[in-house]
Amino acid sequence: MKKVIILGTGFAGLHIFYTIRHLIGEKIEVTVINPTDYSLLKPSLPEVAIDGLDVKHTHIPIRKSLLGKGATFIQSNVTAVDAAAKTVTLEDSTILSYDTLFIATGAVKDYDAIERYREYGYSVCDDHEAQRLYERLQSFSGGNIVTGSARSRFGTRIQAPRLSAPCEGPIGEVMFMTDHYLQTEKKLSPDAYTITAFSPAETFFEDVGPKPHEAMEKYMQKAGMHVHTNKVLTKIDREAIYFEDGSHLPCDLAIVIPPYKAPGFIADSGLG
Question: Rounded to two decimals, what is the model's pTM?
């Protein structure tokens, strides 16, 4: 029987698994590997960060469903892939063989690429960081909020748009949700704070095209929000956020999308 291994249980990993089961049934042996026994519902993370949604609502249990569809589920980190030998090595040194491997682990959020992020930065990119931001907002009483995406560098093996920012959709959510939260829940006057966005690209929201940007621009102007483009984030400190061109913005609360990078096992295995 052919062996298939799927790494990751996000949208891509689960889609691959259920598609295989639908098209091929149980004629092949499928093993799914993930560090947690749940899939993280990332689109709900801004609600955790700003609305206080219980983080448990972003954890979708997967073990029972996968086992019910005849999969073998292993909760573990992958440390190496040997493409020539067609093997996967787990953190406990277990080695698994495969005929076909699907890598659907997603990118790693490289918070440490931003100087002093751990001290002064916040994000909505994972369940831990979203909870940190919610806790910070509870004590926020006014000041300058700056939000945006750091620059990521992408590979060239496939034909894809050359984007400067990894994902700017959540920045739009953060801007408007934070504005609403501060006025309705914290009862702050619009004069008590500013919300400013930045982008490493020439155009804010380059990943979604010009029409959404044009639609949002009028709402941003109405709310008094400003955008600075061609700004590559390098450092955050207590009172400002700094960019590669030497400029900075006053900042009391930095909410950023960090650079993306490949999981360690991909680089260590020479896969990219």
Answer: 0.90
